[in-house]
Amino acid sequence: MTLSIITLNYKKPHVTLNCLSSLYEHYHKAFEDGNIEVILVDNDSQDDSVSVLRKAIKDNHYSHIQLIENKENGGFAKGCNLGAKHAKGEYLLFLNNDTVVKDKSLLSMTSYMEEHANIAILGGQLRNTNGTLQASTGKFYTPFNAFLLLLGMQKFGLLDRSPQKIVEVDWVKGGLLMVRQEVFSKLHGFDEKIFMYIEDMELCYRAKQAGYGVYFYPYATVLHAEHASANRTFAIVNIYKNLLYFYKKHRSHSEYLFVRFLMRTKARALISIGKTTHNKYLINTYEEAFKVA
């Protein structure tokens, strides 16, 4: 089998079904021929997700799909690793469930990797639901880049961007990330200590350290409803937590202390602004972020 597409569901069965529908619309023959499979992991939704998904899979005659009921919600990394253990494809594609596929370019990604043995991880282009570009690659979070991140400079293309040609990059976004199964296994998958956010950057960092190539392929496009799976407070708190974990794991202690100082300083400043402006969102979000920093 060429490609295993791995996606997670957590209490969003109808969002997930939109993703599945778009895959089967464009890759119907590839599914029938057994070149593609979908590994769908329900991350212990504890609602009617599994029954809704099972019924839709049966009613729509979706072939080559495995629905795995995870008995715990261990986060994005752990759920993806579970899906990868059941995958048969030479290539694994981690695809967010809040995406919609618009063409047949995913198999073009596998063809490109087959032609370029030096590439271990290949990212594709994410677009907003209105078709505008969504930054799909990033620079590693060195202390200076972490400083820019905390200042919000990624909005201006200083960290995150979408190149217009095939090019080597530091890391690609996990919403559309293809990796050779052999390499993913050698790297022991995503770091399961990271619940959600930064796990894609951390995987690419380890891949680079091991000498593997990470590239961006702009000709594969999916629409992505960013933050459809989590709220903004959850994202900020987990980025704080996981960025510090990344520094503990991969960088020097002095760099860790510097970044921690920056994060706590930013949190204190925004808590003060929140209190001055009576903004409960800022207060609650950055009080939570301060606790994990």
Termini distance?
Answer: 44 Å
Give the radius of gyration.
19 Å
Q: Which structural category do the helix and sheet elements fall into? A: alpha/beta
Anisotropy-based shape: globular
The CATH architecture assignment of the largest domain turns out to be: Alpha-Beta Complex
Number of helices: 10
Structural domain tally = 2
Please summarize the sheet with the most strands: 10 strands, mixed
CATH superfamily of the largest domain: Spore Coat Polysaccharide Biosynthesis Protein SpsA, Chain A
Strand content range: 15-25%
Instruction: Could you tell me the CATH topology label of the largest domain.
Output: Spore Coat Polysaccharide Biosynthesis Protein SpsA, Chain A
Helix content: 40-55%
Helix and strand element order: EHEHEHEEHEEEHEEEEHHEHHH
Mean pLDDT: 94
> How many DSSP E strands?
13
Any idea of the CATH class of the largest domain? Answer: Alpha Beta
Poorly predicted runs are none
Attribute tags:
single chain, 293 residues, alpha/beta, Spore Coat Polysaccharide Biosynthesis Protein SpsA, Chain A, 2 domains, ten-stranded mixed beta sheet, three-stranded antiparallel beta sheet, 10 helices, 13 strands, 46% helix, globular
